[in-house]
Design a protein that fits this description.
alpha/beta; Nitrilase/N-carbamoyl-D-aminoacid amidohydrolase; 13-stranded mixed beta sheet; 3 domains; 563 residues
Amino acid sequence: MIPKNIKREHVIKAIEETEEAGIPEGRSSRKFLVERNGRYYPPKYIISLANKYANGRELNSSQFSGGNETNSFLDALGFKIVEKPYLQKSARKPLMEKKERLHPRTKHDERCPECKETVGKLLEEIYGKVESNVTFEIGTHPKDFRSAACYEKLVEIYEALQSHRGFKEFVKAITLPNCDFFIRNPAFVVEFDESQHFSLPRKKTLEHYPEDLELGFDKKRWLRLCEQINAKDNDPPYRDEQRAWYDTLRDFLPEIKDLEPTVRLYSKEMQWCSLNPERPEDIATFRRIIENRRRRLSGWVATVILQSNERYSNDDRLKALSQIADLVTKEMDGDGVILFPGGWFSAGKQEARNLYEWIEENVRNILSGKKSNVTICLGLDGRVAQYAKDQIGIAVSEKGIIALGRKFHPAPEEKGQVEPAKDHLSREENKSRVFDLNGRKYFLCACYDSFGIKQRGIPNFGTDVILDLVHRFYPKGEGPSGNEYFARHGFAGASKEWGCLVFGAAVFFNREIPERWPSGVYWNQGSKSTREWRYADNPIEPLKEFKLKIKEGAAQIRIFSLN
């Protein structure tokens, strides 16, 4: 008989352990599988393992039955049971057994044919009929566009390419080579750019684009990629100029053929084949990526990481906040978020709510008159003993407090000492922890909450950006010091679970800020375990970076573009 005290969270932990360790030989299922996040596991083995988390030991398989007993138990906990023969061919394979892992798959790279195929299937799920390898009957030489409003600009770009390395005749096709995908309603092209598209000739063309040309990608990011990748394809010798020119014509298609802006995806920005076109969560993730580019959303997030000597007050922190806000808003235009660490302000032994009005008034004054539309997010602690009972994330704009989020997932050592929110949707002072800025939804995490997203199996409900207000890291042996653990399983784990950007801010007390510690993370590693994730896997890099001296030490400020 299955113990009744096995709960959903115990089953989730068993599944997570199985993902890391594999399925022991002989414990696979012949007929049924339990599904979670598009992957499949043997139900009876999962129950055996879940008992370890509920009752301290793995349950002997002879003590309960598979089939109806096991399946009914898991079904009652909200898990989906499927019969093996009816799994569709496109569904993801069950997790492999340990013995199979002796021969791992070849390392994934951008030449994976399934990635582009997956993009096409996802587009079909969202927009209906999608045409691949579409030919537009337009010419390829500037003279073919004499009647178009963009003619002079195309001539300028073409001549810049001719001058770049001296190749005058690089156009060979009579009509524009095929575009990757075309969606008829709404009418726009999607291009899937592999690394060879990011060359210095391509950079040259982008630099000549008019500022008012509407694009379905971030031109600044594409320029940076051209500089970083600096692809060279000299077969034939003018191949880079040729490819850059054809890409230019695809970007100008909206002006030539009255289409919506051309959307571009970079093949390496994520492992596209890890998305399942039959899984609603993955479709939602892909929809956000495409629609954000189609809507041409701008925006940025500035993360603040402190190196502190532990000698500070609320007034000191307020002054530092003002200095940092002045610096960031002088550098950045448009809508953006400045993210400060957890516990930035403290109400001491009083309730956190006692400082809400003080924070609102002072932060509004700091933001008043700024040229940018800025939201400041910071952490507030209250009723401090060994741990703060109140741990709150606050978002403040010129309008005042627009979002409040109480910690909903305490760290293991905080349980019984922190007073958490009931769940991730609970309101604080009748305010949500979610706020909107320029078409994006932001979700406030109070420190360890980012771990709760995965550990509680919380599905993404439309969030585009997670903002994690982390408290502190000390030197080893002097207090919490797991900054690598936090980045890997908190930031990267939450990004993997929700398929969105994650930004974090923290304080490093009496220690240097680790040079490569990531404060902006985006998961693009497919089903890879977060245990295997390395900082080098992270595709997110700051647009700008500064270091500012403040009274308690120094603030490292990184500004990230959201496009």
